[in-house]
Amino acid sequence: MTLPALFIAHGSPMMALEDNEYTRFLARLGRELPKPRGIAVFSAHWDDPDQRLTDDAEHGTMHDFYGFPEEMYQITYPANGSAELTNQIMQRFEAGNLHAKPVTGRGLDHGAWVILRKMYPDADIPVVALSIDSKRSPSEQYSIGAMLSDLREDGILIIGSGGLVHNLRMVHPSDEPDDWAVQFDEWIAEQLETWNLHSLFAYDKKAPHAREAVPSYGTEHLVPLFYAMGAADNGRKAERLFQSYQYGSLSLNCWSFQ
């Protein structure tokens, strides 16, 4: 059973409480995919210069946000970890000469649990969370994801959780997407559909409105895309499964790579 790798926008933490077209899509996606044996998720909210991954029997739920309704802080997502999957990932990192360190007691940040709770509400699939490093080059991020590509053939769902357009200084109340955000998303889409790594890796110089879409202080939300793409380097096929916007420019999209 070969699963795709996915890039999933996790939007605002409030998505945990929302019922809208995007959350219903995520629920449907979880039902339609073959049930994974395990999930490995690279989250934008675990940015570390060293490669880290969780090694817990059970995960706590991080409420790594502030200023939200009290109900948000009562939500839990009690997924188990997987020592077997952690070891499999470590073996592949070691084979790729990437120094990595398992950590315990961290829990799942909202970049991981918000989307997983929509897709797999029963929390019955083992999860291993992985850090990203926004200071690495896109080609390095891609290469790290590629180290895990064969796990997809063993029933492991690999997810990059972030956001292609995620500039909180540019959001505003609007039901219509900002033109600049759409232009950036469509440029990214064109490169993904042709697997144009040369242009993608230079998105900051080539993409329209790259500075607004991926601000210098917020690159960590884009880079899970490269980890997820790398995990499908052995197939190199991209399909956009969903696209919408909140708050004018907050891009809610899902890409499948096989």
UniProtKB/TrEMBL annotation:
Q: Which GO terms describe its molecular function?
A: dioxygenase activity
Signal sequence, start to end: none
- What cofactor is this protein dependent on? Zn(2+)
Does DNA damage show up as a keyword for this record?
no
Q: So which domain of life are we looking at?
A: Bacteria
Q: Where is the Extradiol ring-cleavage dioxygenase class III enzyme subunit B domain?
A: 5-249
Note one Pfam family from the annotation.
LigB
Ranges in coiled-coil conformation = none
Which controlled-vocabulary keywords does the entry list?
A: Dioxygenase, Metal-binding, Oxidoreductase, Zinc
The record's similarity note reads: Belongs to the DODA-type extradiol aromatic ring-opening dioxygenase family.
Task: Tell me which PANTHER family the record gives.
Answer: 4,5-DOPA DIOXYGENASE EXTRADIOL-LIKE PROTEIN
UniProt protein name: Dioxygenase
Protein's organism: Paenibacillus ihbetae
